[in-house]
Amino acid sequence: MMQKTSQPIIKYIPDYLDYLEIEQGLSPASVENYGRFLKKFSNWLKKFSLSGLLPHELTAEHIYKYKTFLARQGSSDKSPAPLKKVTQNYYLIALRNLLKYFSDKDITSLPADKVKLLRDKDDKQIKFLKLEQVEQLLLAPDISSEVGLRDRAILETLFSTGLRVAELVALNRDQLRLKLGTNYLEIAIRGKGGRIRTVYFSSRAVEWLKKYLNSRPDLDNALFISYSKKDAQKGSRRLSVRSIENIVKKYVKIAGLPIMTSPHSLRHSYATDLLSNGVDLRLVQEFLGHRNIATTQIYTHVTNKQLGDVHRRYHSGNKIRN
User: Fold this and answer.
1) Among residues 16, 34, 91, 299, which one is catalytic?
2) What is the overall mean pLDDT for the chain?
3) Are 159 and 134 in contact (CB under 8 A)?
4) Which residues sit opposite 225 in a β-bridge?
């Protein structure tokens, strides 16, 4: 039975973040992001003297005003440029999920579906590389150096597995157990939300991982490490998410690819490649580790043009004379 409460919305946020970590199994980084997104909502409440607003007092009018605030808000005090719609949606998703939490805890509040996300056709444009562009990127590192060999292995792994960057940097050497003669590999990883899934390495990726690991005399268990002396002094030399992003950005420039290409573009390219070759959408969902098939469906429009071309080329109905 739903019940009203005398505790303001703001007071529930710390408990909600604990709930995300403990009951929902979100990673610390994801919980931190939710905290950051909800902090903006808290600041908005304070700014308009709504700090004491109770869950059941929140109305659709409040949501509208908060959306207006986000639309006119700069990304920071130093950056007056308005937030992109995709970024505004992150804040709205965090608020919507807080309302779902209220519902789960039987606390009377505005229904979560009253928080509508913003529509932006550009947000749905998946940034992926064509196969020849992927090849350009993979061939960009100078493999005569240990850094170049590592970077080639990173790029090959990203495209072969569709791993998220956080999943990539968490990989350890002892997970791989590469043996002489092995030309294929599959391992279990803990992905987003703590969910376990199997990822698969192509023979090509395995080959470059072997070459990279054979060049390493160190004992660090991290699969991908930094070679800088500064990082070596810190203890573990494991590369960070930011480091991987910078590495990909470096080779994107060398290969002359679109500047917006990122590690996630390789994940998009991986998914698009599978779909283009006829893999069922639900299997792609498993490969990517998506909890909901709706998340995977963002890729389907990418292959629509190709399907249309195939239909026009092969369907007999296009060949029959009038």
Assistant:
1) 299
2) 85
3) yes
4) 238
Q: Are 48 and 62 in contact (CB under 8 A)?
A: no
pLDDT, tens digit (0-9, with 9 covering 90-100), for 20-57: 888 877 778 778 888 999 999 999 999 999 999 999 99
Residues 6+ apart with CB under 8 A from 243: 169, 226
Of 61-75, 78-92, 219-233, the least confident = 78-92
Could you give the 3-state DSSP secondary structure of residue 312?
helix
pLDDT tens-place string over residues 275-314 = 888 788 888 888 898 887 777 777 766 655 555 565 566 6
Q: Is there a catalytic annotation at residue 299?
A: yes
The CB density around residue 272, as the number of other CB atoms within 10 Å, is: 21
Query: Does the annotation mark 267 as catalytic?
Result: yes
The residue annotated as part of the active site, out of 40, 150, 152, 164, is: 164
- Identity of residue 114: K
- pLDDT by residue (tens digit) across 178-214? 765 677 889 999 888 788 999 999 999 999 999 999 9
Q: What is the DSSP letter of 44?
A: H
Q: Which of 62, 192, 238, 268 is catalytic?
A: 192
Catalytic site includes residue 290 = yes
Which residue among 62, 67, 267, 268 is the active-site one? 267
Q: What single string gives the DSSP state of each residue in 195-216? A: -EEEEEE-HHHHHHHHHHHHT-
Catalytic residue at 164?
yes
Cβ atoms of 269 and 127 within 8 Å: the answer is: no
- Domains, the chain, with CATH or none: 9-122 (1.10.150.130), 131-310 (1.10.443.10)
- In terms of Cα–Cα distance, which of 243, 241, 237 is closest to 218? 237
Residues 6+ apart with CB under 8 A from 213: 173, 176, 178
The reply to whether the predicted model has a pTM over 0.85 is no
Q: CA 269 to CA 135: how far, in whole Å?
A: 12
268 is catalytic: no
Among residues 290, 301, 311, 321, the one annotated as catalytic is: 290
